[in-house]
Amino acid sequence: MAPTADKLARPVTLAARALIAASPAMLLSRRDLHVNGTQKVTLGIIAVYVVVIALLWNIPYVRWVLWPFKMLVIAFHEFSHAFMALCTGGRVESISLDPHEGGVTHMRGGINALTLPAGYLGSSLIGALLIFCGFNIVASKVASIVLGVCFLLTLWWARRDWLTILTVLLAVGLLVACWFIKHAEALRYVVLFIGVMSSLYSAWDICDDLILRKVNSSDASVFARRYGGSSQCWGVIWSIISLLFMAAGIVAGIAAFHQSSKQQQGDSKKFIPTR
């Protein structure tokens, strides 16, 4: 029975090695931030994603390509509000998601000074974690399982029309399909895409709010009315913090995952293997 136990434990060990390698002690001990070839490609893809998403976000009709991913990022934003409300003694009454009007979380109690910025900062932190995972195939596999569950959960709170249901299911299908492309190497790029979009959501959404004025008032404008300052000022501050989170995710990924693409594929074959 011992050999069988070893085989069952091996995938868990690989996943743990990929994720636990990012612990603060490990990152501090790895002072070498030399960027290898695989990481250079990853950094280049991140830069391309920033430009592509910025263009798609603002081009009429073409922006529909982002629909399921935008729905997921809005969900991260609203879940972060809800999580902080619960952590500060509040109660969540309802959550609604709409990629046109933005999401809204109705809460009672909690500390408003923390729950209001939690949406943008929480989604940015999640984005940074996804970018970090996007530097490694095994870590991306773990992240994709969580993302798949989150995609399906958005259908509970999102506006239920045929387009929302179809695009969310297609996004889940994309995640599943990527598991079977070069031992899930393609999965890294999908996880990176969602990570970049979530990291920069605050900046793009604040621009949307200042220019297009969505139906739901922005967190920055509510925060400014309650605590002073302007919505633009708080928006810029939160955007800068979001960029810092994103930079931290990139640096952590470089420090933790030095494997080449071939080495990552080898590890991926041993963790929930696919063709």
What does this structure look like?
A hairpin with a 7-residue loop joins strand 1 and strand 2. Residues 1-5 and 24-31 have low confidence and may be disordered. The chain has a two-stranded antiparallel sheet with strand order 1-2. The two termini are 27 Å apart. The protein is mainly α. Helix 4 packs across helix 7 and helix 6 (137-157) runs antiparallel to helix 7 (162-178). The chain contains twelve helices and two strands; from the N terminus they run H-H-H-H-E-E-H-H-H-H-H-H-H-H.
Q: Which helices and strands occur, and which strands form pairs?
A:
Elements lengths: L1 H19 L3 H6 L7 H22 L8 H21 L3 E6 L7 E5 L3 H22 L3 H21 L4 H17 L6 H15 L1 H11 L7 H9 L3 H26 L4 H10 L5
Antiparallel strand pairs: 1-2
Brief sketch in words of this structure:
The protein has 275 residues and is mostly helical. The chain is 72% helix and 4% strand. The longest helix is centred in the last third of the chain and has 26 residues, at 231-256.
Spell out the key features of this protein.
12 helices, two-stranded antiparallel sheet, disordered N terminus, about 5% strand, mainly alpha, globular, about 280 residues
- What is the subunit arrangement here? single chain
Please provide the count of β strands. Answer: 2
Shape summary: globular
Distance between the termini: 27 Å
List SSEs in N-to-C order. Answer: HHHHEEHHHHHHHH
pLDDT averaged residue by residue: 80
Instruction: Tell me the β content.
Output: under 5%
- Poorly predicted regions are 1-5, 24-31
Strand order of the largest sheet: 1-2
For the sheet with most strands, the description reads: 2 strands, antiparallel
Structural class: mainly alpha
Q: Report helical residue fraction.
A: over 70%
DSSP helix count? 12
